């Protein structure tokens, strides 16, 4: 499958249509955003296309974001895709589980559009960030 533009591709996985719409509205100007509403659909998409980054919800059924991420990490030529977890769950054990699975970041919902965009750029395009903004963000304890 060939990309439709020169924009980097982000796969957003969430079972809530409102969240997927908000992600698309936030990112569409800057990235090619593909949305799916389940872990199974994400895995089927990944069999054909390798996105530059995955935004992945934790609490989904029947396959959770962590189960989906474990499957992604076992896929040939997909294990290295950066993943940012999106979730309403604040429990530190979930953060730690994500870290052991190699996530690049963890964003709490509801997210601020500027925060989402900044965190994605920090992973995909750190050279485009203002160094002062990066220092402030890293010093904020988030």
Please give the structural blueprint:
Elements: E1 9-13, H1 17-27, E2 32-36, H2 39-46, E3 53-57, H3 65-73, E4 83-87, H4 92-100, E5 105-108, H5 113-124, H6 131-139
Parallel strand pairs: 1-2, 1-3, 3-4, 4-5
Tell me about this structure:
It is built from 6 helices and 5 strands; from the N terminus they run E-H-E-H-E-H-E-H-E-H-H. It has 142 residues and is α/β, with parallel strands linked by helices. The protein has one domain: Response regulator (Rossmann fold, 3-Layer(aba) Sandwich). Strands 2-1-3-4-5 form a 5-stranded parallel beta sheet, with helices on both faces. Strand 1, helix 1 and strand 2 form a beta-alpha-beta unit. The N and C termini lie far apart (37 Å). The mean pLDDT is 89.
Top keywords for this entry?
142 residues; alpha/beta; Rossmann fold; 5-stranded parallel sheet; 6 helices; globular
